[in-house]
Design goal:
By secondary structure, this protein is of the alpha/beta class. The protein folds into three domains: 226 residues, 4-Layer Sandwich (Glutamine Phosphoribosylpyrophosphate, subunit 1, domain 1); 192 residues, Rossmann fold; 149 residues, Glucose-6-phosphate isomerase like protein, domain 1 (Rossmann fold), CATH 3.40.50. The protein is built from 18 helices and 26 strands. A seven-stranded antiparallel β-sheet has the order 3-2-4-1-10-9-11, covered by helices on one side. Strands 5-6-7-8-12-13-14 form a seven-stranded antiparallel β-sheet. A hairpin with a 5-residue loop joins strand 5 and strand 6. The longest helix has 22 residues. It is globular, with a radius of gyration of 25 Å. The protein binds 6-O-phosphono-alpha-D-glucopyranose. The site of 6-O-phosphono-alpha-D-glucopyranose (G6P) has 16 residues, from helix 9.
Length: 605
C-alpha cells in the first residue's frame, strides 16, 4: 500500500507534500518521509508515525520547490524512521519513494551486496535506489528503463535525481500513480483525491510507463523509449473532504452517513421503480446464459460478496459462491465464458482483488465490478462497472461503503433474476420496494444509538466475543466481528450458528458475550436453538433480530431491527454491530479511524 505525493513548481513543496500525504493516510500511516532538492542538494526527513509528524521534523526555513514524500504501511522491515521512505542511492544522487512490493528484492539485494554495496534499511525499496545509481550514465530515463526490466512485483515510484533538480521522474506497474499539471506546477500522487482541484489536467500513468515531470510539462515514454501521447482523464465525483464536523471520529460520521449513501446509490440505479443498470454491458441473452456467479473481494467487501452469493443462488437457482480474493487465484478456479464474476471493492485498487479479476478474465468470465472509486484500476479493467455512491470514506474500518455495496448487490441480483426469467414481475417489484425502504429503516436503527452505547459500556472489559448467524445473518455476523476486532482490538470470531457446536462452543463460559444475528425469519428459529446451546453454557446473549426472533432472559439483550425482506436483512443487522464496535473502541481509548497495523487501501498481495 503506502501513499506517494510529489511536487515540482513555483510554490514551497514541503506543505504541499505533507498535506497530500495526510490525505493519503488511508493507504498506511506507520511512518512517513519526504525528500526535497535545494541548490542541487537533497535533504531527507523521516519520522515514525503519521505524516503530520513531519511538520515537527522539517526545519521551518526549508524552502524548496521540488520534492517527493511517502506515507508507509510497513511490508519489509519495522515501521521505523530508518525504514521510512525516501531511500537514497549510496552516492546520494537518487531519492526514491515506492508503493508496492519488489518481489525479487532479496535476490537483487544479495547481488548488490556481493558487489560491495551496504544497505541502510530492511526495505525492498532500497534496491531500486541502488540499481538506479548502478545503471545511471547521465540519462535518467534509460537508467529507469534498465532498472524496471530487473524488477518483479508491483511498484509506483517517485524519483528525484540531483542532476535534474527541477524534475520528478516516475514509473509504475500495478500500483496506481496520477500526475496533475497545474498553473503552479506538476504534481504526482497515488490518488487523484489529493491532487489540487484547480483547472489543471490530470493523467494516469500506465503500467511500465516512465513519466518525466517538470513544472509545466509531462513527458511519458513506454519501456522501449517511445514517447506516448497521454489523454487527460476526466475527474468527476470526487467530493471534497468536509472533515469530521460535529462527530468525534470519521467512523461515527460515516456510520451516520449510511442512510444517505444507500439512498444515493439506490437513486443512481433505480429509476421509476425499475432497476436501471445502465453500465451493465450484458444483453438479456448473455444474462440467460449465465450458469455460475462468483463474488470476489477482500475484507468487508468479501462479506458483502458472501451476502451476494446467498441472494443470487436463492433468486437465480444456479451455483453462486463468494471467494476471498487472495485465495481465488491459487484455488484453480474454473470460471468460463458463462460465469459472471462480481468483483467488489471500495477502493478499486486492492491488489488481491485485482489479481483475482485478471484470473477470472483469463478464463473468459464476464466481469462486473462494484466500486466506489470510478478511476480505479479495477474499474478500468472490468467489462461493466456499477458505482456505489458512498462518497469518500476516510475511516479505515468501512461502514458506509459496505452498506452501499450491499444495495448494489441486491439490485444486481434482482435484475439478473428478473432478466433471466427466474422471478416474476410481482417479486421483482416487491424486492425493489423493499430496497427503496432501506434508508429509512437504517435511520430508525440509528436512533437507538444510546442503547448500543450502553451495551458497549457493559462489554468494555470483555476479551472474547463470539458472533453467530445463519445465511445472510452469518455474513452480517462476520462483518460485525470484523468491525469489533479491527477497531477495538477485542478478540472475536464469527461462526455459522450450526457449526459452533463442532468446536468453538468449548470457548463459551460464564458471561461470554455471544452476538447472535437471528433476523432472517426463514432460519431464525434454528439460530435460536444455537443460542440456547450457548446459554446453557453461561453465555450472555445479544440477539439482533425482530420481535418474534427470540425471547430474552433478564441477562440477555434483544436489539430489534425493523422488518424487511429476509434477503436484505444484513443492511439493517450490521448497523447496531458497527455502533457497538465504535463505542467499545471509544471506551478502550483505541485509535478508531486509524487502527493499529491496518490500512484502508491494501495495494500489496
Ligand atoms: C482493507 C480495509 C477494509 C476493506 C478491505 C477491502 O482491509 O480496511 O475495510 O474491506 O481492505 O478493500 P476494498 O477497497 O477492496 O473494498
Amino acid at each position: 500500500m503506502c501513499g506517494i505525493m510529489g511536487y515540482t513548481g513555483t510554490l514551497p513543496a514541503v506543505p504541499i507534500i505533507i498535506k497530500g500525504l495526510e490525505g493519503l493516510e488511508y493507504r498506511g500511516y506507520d511512518s512517513a518521509g519526504l525528500g526535497v532538492i535545494k541548490a542541487g542538494e537533497i535533504s531527507v526527513y523521516k519520522t515514525q508515525g503519521s505524516p503530520e509528524k513531519l511538520w515537527n521534523t522539517v526545519p521551518e526555513n526549508l524552502i524548496s520547490s521540488v520534492g517527493v514524500g511517502h506515507t508507509r504501511w510497513a511490508t519489509h522491515g519495522a515501521p521505523t524512521a530508518q525504514n521510512a521512505h525516501p531511500h537514497l542511492s549510496p552516492d546520494g544522487l537518487f531519492t526514491v519513494v515506492h508503493n508496492g512490493i519488489i518481489e525479487n528484492f532479496a535476490a537483487l539485494k544479495s547481488e548488490l551486496e556481493e558487489q560491495g554495496y551496504i544497505f541502510n534499511s530492511e526495505t525492498d525499496t532500497e534496491v531500486v535506489a541502488y540499481l538506479l545509481e548502478k545503471e545511471y550514465k547521465g540519462d535518467v530515463k534509460s537508467a529507469i528503463t534498465n532498472v524496471l526490466t530487473r524488477l518483479e512485483g508491483s511498484y509506483a515510484l517517485g524519483i528525484l535525481c540531483n542532476d535534474y533538480p527541477d524534475t520528478i521522474f516516475c514509473a509504475k506497474y500495478s500500483s496506481p500513480l496520477f500526475v496533475s499539471l497545474e498553473s503552479d506546477g506538476g504534481y504526482i500522487a497515488s490518488d487523484v483525491s489529493v491532487l489540487p482541484k484547480n483547472a489543471g489536467k490530470i493523467y494516469k500513468i500506465g503500467d511500465k510507463e516512465i513519466g518525466i515531470l517538470s513544472k509545466d510539462e509531462l513527458k511519458v515514454f513506454d519501456i522501449d523509449g517511445c514517447r506516448i501521447r497521454k489523454t487527460e482523464i476526466k475527474v468527476r465525483d470526487i467530493k471534497n473532504l468536509e472533515g469530521k464536523g460535529e462527530y468525534a471520529h470519521y467512523m461515527l460520521k460515516e456510520i451516520y452517513e449510511q442512510p444517505q449513501a444507500v439512498e444515493d446509490t439506490l437513486e443512481s440505479i433505480i429509476v421509476n421503480s425499475r432497476i436501471k443498470l445502465n453500465t451493465l454491458r450484458l444483453t438479456k441473452e448473455k444474462i440467460k446464459r449465465i450458469n455460475r456467479i462468483e463474488f470476489i473481494a477482500c475484507g468487508s467487501a468479501y462479506h458483502a460478496g458472501a451476502v451476494g452469493a446467498y441472494i443470487a443462488q436463492k433468486l437465480m437457482g444456479i451455483p453462486c459462491e463468494a471467494y476471498i480474493a487472495s485465495e481465488y487465484r491459487y484455488s484453480n478456479p474454473v470460471p468460463d465464458e458463462n460465469t459472471l464474476a462480481v468483483i467488489i471493492s471500495q477502493s478499486g485498487e486492492t491488489a488481491d482483488t485485482l489479481a483475482a479479476l485478471r484470473e477470472a478474465k483469463r478464463h473468459n468470465a464476464k466481469i462486473v465490478s462494484i466500486i466506489n472509486a470510478p478511476l480505479s484500476t479495477i474499474a478500468q479493467e472490468s467489462d461493466s462497472v456499477i458505482l456505489t455512491k458512498a462518497g469518500k470514506e476516510v475511516a479505515v474500518a468501512t461502514t458506509k461503503a459496505f452498506s452501499a455495496q450491499l444495495v448494489v448487490i441486491y439490485a444486481l441480483c434482482t435484475r439478473l433474476a428478473y432478466s433471466s426469467g427466474k422471478i416474476n414481475k410481482a417479486r421483482y417489484s416487491e424486492l425493489i420496494e423493499q430496497m427503496k425502504n432501506l434508508p429509512e429503516k437504517i435511520r430508525e436503527i440509528l436512533k437507538n444509538d444510546r442503547e448500543y452505547k450502553a451495551l458497549a459500556d457493559e462489554l468494555k472489559d470483555i476479551n472474547y466475543t463470539c458472533f453467530i448467524g445463519r445465511g445472510v445473518d452469518y455474513c452480517a455476523a462476520m462483518e460485525g466481528a470484523l468491525k469489533l476486532k479491527e477497531v477495538s482490538y477485542t478478540h472475536c470470531e464469527a461462526y455459522a450458528a450450526g457449526e459452533l457446536k463442532h468446536g468453538t462452543i468449548s470457548l463459551i463460559e460464564q458471561g461470554t458475550p455471544v452476538v447472535a444475528v437471528a433476523a432472517q425469519s426463514s432460519v431464525s428459529q434454528k439460530t435460536v436453538s444455537n443460542i440456547r446451546e450457548c446459554k446453557a453454557r453461561g453465555a450472555k446473549i445479544i440477539c439482533i433480530g425482530n420481535e418474534n426472533s427470540f425471547t430474552p432472559d433478564a441477562d440477555d439483550k434483544m436489539l430489534l431491527i425493523p422488518q424487511t425482506e429476509d434477503l436484505f436483512k444484513t443492511s439493517l443487522t450490521v448497523i447496531p454491530m458497527q455502533l457497538i464496535a465504535y463505542y467499545t473502541a471509544l471506551n478502550k481509548g483505541c485509535s478508531i479511524d486509524k487502527p493499529k497495523n491496518l490500512a484502508k487501501s491494501v495495494t500489496v498481495e
